């Protein structure tokens, strides 16, 4: 059984054929999906969807959405975490974090929402799912100030030193479509050399498409030509990790599944 540790199945890109997307995932052996929220307005629809598809979910406000969010949305998150604290499918606070890659965003507001959501996760006793884009050191600084129950650093693309720092704080690291590109040397080196207890697999569907969903490498480099990513792509992404590590697919599924359950303990009980 494969676990997609990060999939936005609630995204509008799936509105026309969500049931078919889910059927393809199940046919490919992807039997568990972790669905992180990005906006407070999505909390309840996402919770309902997770229950409908037998998945897990996380509640949080994505750093690229904090400028659209009101301060009241942090109160909505607190209330939702309290209201659903006994929901077996609520497994984390996320997707939260910092994005220092996309220009023109208010970093101070991102930081304020990040710290506030770390405190909410700590108070709820939940792990976190982190958005990490050119922000690893700032995220680590927050985690050292506010101790949370570990979690997953999604789509990790930092240095080995930064990777080791996240691992020391109880985090697993997410690998997905970016790992399938031969030119992604740092990501592939991390995937190959980190301890077996660290990697988890993800698609970030509909985003971060693997290499074969682009018509050409040039289009990928230019940010053009991407087809929609789906959770059914996870086993083929996993084959890249297996090849890098010299693992069988069976061992890859077992290791990465166990790592998800270690990072998000409530997933193991679903």
Description:
This protein is α/β, with parallel strands linked by helices and 270 residues long. It has one domain (2-269): Alpha-Beta Barrel (TIM Barrel), CATH 3.20.20. The chain has ten helices and eight strands. An eight-stranded parallel β-sheet has the order 1-2-3-4-5-6-7-8. Strand 4 (90-99), helix 4 and strand 5 (128-133) form a beta-alpha-beta unit. The chain starts with a strand and ends in a 7-residue tail after the last helix.
* Rg over C-alpha atoms, rounded to the nearest angstrom: 17 Å
The biggest sheet, with number of strands, parallel, antiparallel or mixed sense and barrel status, is: 8 strands, parallel
Mean pLDDT: 96
Beta-strand level of the residues, as a percent range? 15-25%
What number of domains? 1
Considering the chains and any ligands shown, give keywords for the structure.
single chain; 270 residues; alpha/beta; 16% strand; 10 helices; eight-stranded parallel β-sheet; TIM Barrel; 8 strands
Nutshell version of this structure?
With 270 residues, this protein is α/β, with parallel strands linked by helices. Helices cover 41% and strands 16% of the residues. The chain has one domain: Metal-dependent hydrolases (TIM Barrel, Alpha-Beta Barrel).
């Amino acid at each position: 059984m494969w676990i997609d540790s990060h999939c936005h199945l609630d995204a509008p890109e799936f509105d026309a054929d969500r049931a078919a997307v889910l059927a393809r995932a199940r046919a490919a052996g992807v039997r568990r999906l972790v669905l992180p929220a990005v906006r407070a307005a999505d909390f309840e629809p996402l919770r309902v969807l997770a229950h409908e598809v037998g998945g897990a979910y996380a509640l949080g406000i994505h750093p690229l959405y904090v400028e659209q969010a009101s301060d009241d949305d942090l109160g909505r998150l607190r209330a939702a975490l309290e209201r659903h604290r006994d929901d077996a499918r609520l497994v984390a606070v996320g997707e939260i974090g910092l994005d220092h890659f996309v220009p023109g965003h208010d970093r101070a507001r991102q930081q304020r929402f990040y710290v506030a959501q770390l405190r909410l996760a700590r108070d709820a006793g939940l792990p976190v799912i982190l958005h990490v884009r050119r922000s690893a050191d700032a995220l680590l600084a927050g985690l050292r100030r506010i101790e949370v129950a570990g979690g997953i650093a999604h789509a990790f693309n930092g240095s080995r030193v930064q990777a080791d720092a996240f691992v020391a704080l109880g985090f697993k690291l997410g690998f997905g479509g970016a790992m399938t590109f031969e030119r992604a040397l740092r990501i592939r080196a991390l995937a190959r050399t980190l301890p077996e207890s660290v990697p988890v697999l993800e698609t970030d569907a509909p985003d971060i498409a693997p290499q074969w969903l682009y018509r050409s490498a040039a289009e990928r480099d230019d940010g053009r030509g991407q087809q929609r990513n789906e959770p059914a792509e996870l086993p083929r992404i996993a084959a890249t990790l297996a090849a890098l590590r010299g693992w069988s697919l069976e061992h890859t599924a077992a290791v990465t599944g166990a790592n998800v359950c270690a990072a998000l303990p409530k997933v193991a009980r679903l």
